[in-house]
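Annotated sample (chain length 255).
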Amino acid sequence: MLMSMIHFLSCSPPSLETYTLFDMNMIALQGDDFFMGGAPPIAQPVHRISWNHAYWIADIEITQQTYEFVTNINPSEEISASFPVSNILWTEALEFCNSLSKLEDKTPCYTNISTHDAEWSLDCDGYRIPTEAEWEYAAQSQYNLMYSGSSEPTDVGWFREETQKAHIPRQKNRNQWGLYDMSGNVSEWVFDGYLPYEALPYLYDIRHIHTPNRISRGGSWSDYSIDSPISNRSVDGNEWRFPWIGFRIVRTRSQ
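Output written by the structure step:
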């Protein structure tokens, strides 16, 4: 069993409490009301998310070595232990989270996992993938930047104009929360099924949407940076594998 250690992230705001898990730092965020959306047309209208919600989020995307340690498989096309895992089905990301939760003696979050949906509760103490709101809050910063940590994409992310493959995490600058590769490298599955923002409640909610399409966020090495601002949403098929999509994990935090 891997031991976890509470500490404070150096060179970051002192309120950012973290603990180590495999090759990740799980960083504590306290969500507050924020404005979500912006990139036309798929992320319109800009709308306010009202919540008071604490959670831990991994500072990097799940790497191939971590995924293989937990599941004994590695579906990535380009094999390199320290690269982000990719070629992951949305359901496999959920199943990984359940397996990791059991390994860490925590309650698995997901039940009734199917190709098009899964059930879970925000109160679960295990690991999961972020909701779309959790992801965007973590990617944003108080400086209203286009990318997660900078207005210059090459400062913080790997995109198509610079590369044609994924890269080892923590090679670019982190954002204000200490998170790496929220922009670029591999796109990241979130829990939400696709609905236009016009159909979504402004109050924070867990949306169980039975749909063949899920959302990935952040853009990837396969995307041009101009198409990958923080607010952009990619709609991807649940049953397809993509060598440019991976995921990072979160966990609800007791307040």
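Annotation: The radius of gyration is 17 Å.
Annotation: The chain has four helices and eleven strands.
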